[in-house]
Design brief:
about 550 residues, alpha/beta, 6-stranded mixed β-sheet, 4-stranded antiparallel β-sheet, about 65% helix, ABC1_TM_sf, membrane, ABC transporter ATP-binding protein
Length: about 550
């Protein structure tokens, strides 16, 4: 994937990689406008050379020529539009795929943008950027039309032709002065829309907790304020663009009208023939559209450039983790004197195949540990996997060996089965993972079973059901070392016991070999572990089995037996 640094580079690359279809379509669009510009010219010729003289043969010949021009016009429009629409669609697709790949980079994208804003860049901005491939042929064909008409007007009357050739550059130069303002307004509009989308995503995701604490009104008020900012930015951009469009349309119409008035005066004074007058009037009417296209070019370019700048900002963003090359020797996990966020000199050792519980009464400690094992960046001390620093391990290899499942997991639109497995060859392992996570009960509650529909983010499932489905997905992946952060906070006590037994049986049964770290304060899960590490104030305060710590450590007992 090539790296682009600016919006201009994104636009140049779009042109380069769609060159064949773009320039073929542009050439056909130019021929189309050439034929369209010839229509009023041929009509004038027919009037002067056939109608005025009464020559039937000339009338038939020039009418046939006009019919041929119309035939070429239709064919070039059809095939030109086909090439250009294909180029626009493919560029939009390529940009969306490239942006998605960048956002989902295994070494983790370093960006301050929220999810909703990234979504806006991947959809709206990618689409606006691809529209450049529509602007180029429109501008080119408009120039062809204006040139042909101007030459025809010069041949008919030098003043008429000079009026066109001089007035158009002047009008375009005046309108181009507004391009930077339009670009700023469009960029501001997209930025504010991204913020509103990001907040909406967060609020919809956390709707149940908001309702639980009665904070939905506060969330609604916050979104209303952000949405108003987005609306204001949209209105400012729309006012600027509409004012620009109005000015360009007015100037184009005035120019075309001025040409028609000059032609009328020249016809009345005998300086041009009736056929030439018809040609001038037809050309003036025809020129309104290409004039309008050329007049809005700066606005189009500004909008495409603003969108391309946002696309480039994501594509050029760095990744968090370095390219890893180390190959771990096994899956033993060792944290030595690690400082990261609230963690202050943490020591943790997990042997291969061991089932370890981690209790952290301070939730920030638990979140920091889970996040560090998922993205080992910004810490001091050593985080070793199989004797190698975790951040230096190849990311594909690291993710295969170690998976850190966050407390807040996401489900996707599809079915229960597609949310648990990405492959069709899991066989009995799928059933085992579902049973171990007690997610088989979720399937049994619906007539469709594993084909039960799952809506966006699993909104049609309860919190406990979502946790069990996500846990089944993690268990089915079967990493040699699995880190679980509070996997059972939303399930009842009976289900929690079934999950604890299921994890123990599936990952630490007769086959053995798997390592599991569960960060939790659940006594049911902790009782199933081989060993528990008690973390207080960012450091290890005690270690032992769950039963030993309950009996001997008051702080631990208060943390887990609440």
């Amino acid at each position: 994937m090539s790296k682009v640094s600016t919006g201009s580079a994104v636009l140049r690359r779009a042109v380069a990689r769609n060159g064949r279809r773009l320039w073929t379509g542009t050439a056909l669009a130019g021929v189309y406008q050439l034929c369209a510009a010839l229509v009023p010219i041929l009509v004038g010729v027919i009037v002067d050379r056939a109608v005025a003289t009464g020559a039937v043969t000339a009338l038939l010949a020039w009418t046939a020529a006009l019919a041929l021009v119309y035939l070429v016009l239709v064919v070039t429009y059809r095939f030109g539009a086909r090439n250009l629409q294909r180029a626009i669609a493919e560029e939009g697709h390529q940009l969306r795929v490239e942006l998605a790949a960048k956002i989902l980079h295994p070494r983790v994208l370093r960006t301050g943008r929220h999810t909703g804003d990234l979504l806006a860049v991947t959809t709206t901005d990618a689409e606006y950027t691809s529209y450049l491939l529509d602007h180029i042929p429109r501008v080119t064909s408009a120039l062809v039309a204006v040139t042909v008409s101007a030459v025809a007007l010069l041949l008919i009357s030098t003043p008429l032709g000079l009026t066109v050739l001089i007035a158009i550059p002047v009008v375009l130069a005046v309108l181009t002065l507004t391009a930077p303002l339009i670009a700023r307004r469009v960029k501001e509009q997209q930025d504010q829309a991204g913020r509103a989308s990001a907040l909406a995503t967060d609020l919809v995701t956390g709707l149940r907790p908001l309702r639980g604490i009665g904070a939905q009104d506060a969330g609604t008020g916050r979104y209303r304020r952000v949405s108003r900012h987005s609306l204001a930015a949209t209105l400012r951009a729309s006012r600027t663009q509409n004012a620009y469009l109005g000015a360009s349309t007015m100037l184009s119409s005035l120019l075309a009208g001025g040409i028609a008035l000059m032609a009328g005066w020249f016809a009345l004074t005998g300086r041009i023939t009736v056929g030439q007058f018809i040609t001038v009037i037809g050309s003036a009417q025809f020129l309104v559209e290409p004039f309008g296209v050329l007049a809005v070019v700066p606005g189009w370019t500004a909008a495409a450039r603003a969108a391309a700048d946002r696309v480039a900002a994501v594509l050029r963003a760095d990744v968090v983790l370095p390219p890893g090359t180390a190959v771990p020797d096994g899956c033993e996990l060792r944290l030595t004197d690690v400082t990261y966020g609230p963690l202050a000199g943490l020591h943790l050792h997990v042997h291969a195949g061991e089932f370890v519980g981690v209790v952290a009464p301070r939730s920030a400690d638990a979140e920091a540990l889970a996040r560090l094992l998922a993205v080992p960046d910004g810490h001091t001390g050593d985080v070793l996997l199989g004797g190698e620093r975790l951040e230096t391990v190849d990311r594909d290899r690291a993710r295969h060996l170690l998976h850190s499942e966050p407390h807040r997991t996401d489900l996707f639109t599809g079915t229960l089965a597609t949310n648990v497995t990405l492959h069709d060859d899991d066989g009995g392992r799928l059933d085992e993972a579902l049973r171990a996570a007690a997610a088989d009960e979720v399937a049994h509650l619906h007539p469709a079973g594993l084909r039960m529909p799952v809506t966006e983010r699993g909104a049609n499932l309860s919190g406990g059901q979502r946790q069990r489905v996500a846990l089944a997905r993690a268990l089915l992946a079967g990493p040699p070392l699995l880190v679980l952060h509070d996997p059972t906070t939303a399930v009842d006590a009976v289900t929690e016991q079934a999950v604890a037994d299921g994890i123990r049986s599936l990952r630490h049964g007769s086959d053995g070999g798997y390592g599991t770290v569960v960060i939790t304060s659940s006594p049911t899960l902790l009782a199933a572990t081989d060993r528990v590490v008690f973390v207080a104030d960012g450091v290890v305060a005690a270690e032992g089995t769950h039963a030993e710590l309950v009996a001997d450590d008051d702080s631990y007992r208060r943390a887990v037996l609440r």
